[in-house]
Design brief:
2 copies of one chain form a homodimer.
Chain A lengths: L1 H6 L17 H11 L6 H12 L8 H18 L9 E2 L2 E2 L1 H5 L1 H22 L4 H15 L4 H9 L7 H23 L7 H28 L2 H4 L5 H4 L5 H26 L6 H12 L3
Antiparallel strand pairs in A: 1-2
Chain lengths: 287, 287
């Protein structure tokens, strides 16, 4: 996955346009700074593993898998901005705006989103209907009722007083794109409706598990593990799974969620070994 | 067009998700504040007029026409941010970040882009191949070799010392999306290659004309005409068509460009009356 991402040059496919890209190298550097800073690549890996469980070779899904990572990276760049979460450190590196300035960081995020859409349009296999299915998933997971809406709720601490409200913020902010990774992985060979439903239910549980573990790591992890400052949520007075349920309570919740995700995978025909590995890995970040 | 834009609610199409949108009303308000502030709607109108010249009824292109305006609005919101051009007034109203804060303004721009993609995926007529053709045009016009790359060059005053470099910045920053409006209008009934080429050449001239007139208005217009502060380019020391060629020189350039655009339209079969009107209107903003 990292090789594929590193090879993306974001240049025009039209040779007549090559001259126009002259001078945008600094913008591309900023995009690559954040895109190639490591990270777990969980969304692309999840997308490829889902496709693999349906017998699709990884190569056929690589453009959409990469698009998921481009979109995730764009959201990290924008979330880290001074006007938002104001984070200086991400994936163990200075954040995009610290290195390249706020203006370039905003544009780098914007461009990553555009290039994600372009990648699917130009390189995804399977024909136009598959591309549209994937772009519909990506845009729905990214807009008002997805990632951006969730970040808005998070910034405004909307209704975080209850466990249900917290779950809702996370469902939008991280859950939808995580789920979209699974949904995109289904696009090339859509399974029967009941199997599709099982994949989608699994995707929801995995997204939830990811967020609970993230909240646990924010208090129980190390800066080295996280690649970012620990205790940031508590300092901001954010309601988290830990602040709502205590550390032991959050860990019990993670265990139950992991159990439900694993149980759902057992109902899915096909080779779900990689999906099991990912589920265990997400859980094991705190174990 | 305005009725269609005003009716967009950016809600999920899945009734199960309705509850998730609760609390995002402020984000949607910010999006609508900028989207429904009037403006010339030149991109959607151009898209619809292009489709009309090929015999397509406007209704069939409305979602993509609206998507163009969503993307244009998102770019205005981000360009106006304090970290970018730091503009307080746009389309005669306080800019998005002045009213809703920087964080919400960044997210409103992000969400408008996502919702533009969703609109094409969910509502554009003509089948998946048409949708992909349109999304490919939109993403190419928006990314590194389009609008965002152009804004990056503009902020960094890259190579603005020569007339050619200036033309290149504008080709990316405004020309590409303006041209995409024409290209999207061709998507439902693609014309023969030589006619297609004439449409595309016309689109380039119109984008250029638009920018020259914009530069002229920045020194010769009134704040009432523009809906934004006049003289902003000069205060920022920006190289413009006026600073390079003088006011009379820029006006001569506009006249020549208008002539070339009109001449190209004459080579196109079909009823190009609306396209002629738009071309004259763009030119007449300074006349």
């Amino acid at each position: 996955m990292d090789d594929y991402l590193a090879a993306l040059d974001f240049a025009s496919t039209d040779p007549r346009d090559a001259a126009d890209a002259e001078g945008t190298e600094g913008l591309v550097d900023a995009m690559r700074h954040s895109l190639l800073a490591g990270g777990k690549r969980i969304r692309p890996v999840l997308c490829l593993a889902t496709a693999a469980s349906l017998g699709e070779p990884a190569e056929r899904m690589l453009p959409s898998a990469a698009a998921l990572e481009l979109i995730h990276t764009y959201s990290l760049i924008h979330d880290d901005l001074p006007a938002m979460d104001d984070d200086d450190l991400r994936r163990g590196r200075p954040t995009c705006h610290v290195v390249y300035g706020e203006d370039t960081a905003i544009l780098a995020g914007d461009a990553l989103f555009a290039e994600a859409v372009r990648l699917v349009c130009e390189r995804q296999e399977g024909g136009p209907a598959v591309k549209v299915r994937i772009l519909a998933e990506l845009s729905l997971a990214t807009g008002v009722t997805g990632m951006v809406g969730g970040q808005y709720l998070d910034l405004n601490d909307a209704g975080r007083e209850s466990p249900e409200a917290l779950a809702r913020v996370h469902a939008l902010k991280t859950g939808r794109l995580m789920a979209a990774a699974v949904h995109c992985g289904l696009a090339l060979s859509p399974p029967a409706p009941e199997v599709d439903a099982a994949y989608r239910a699994f995707a929801r549980e995995l997204g939830l598990l990811f967020q609970i573990v993230d909240d646990i790591l924010d208090v129980a992890g190390t800066e080295e593990d996280l690649g970012k400052a620990v205790g940031a949520d508590a300092r901001r007075g954010k309601v988290t799974y830990v602040s709502l349920h205590g550390l032991a309570g959050a860990r019990a919740l993670a265990e139950q969620t992991h159990g439900r995700a694993r149980a759902l995978l057992e109902t899915i025909p096909g080779d779900v070994a990689e999906l099991i590995d990912i589920t265990d890995l997400v859980y094991a970040r705190d174990n």
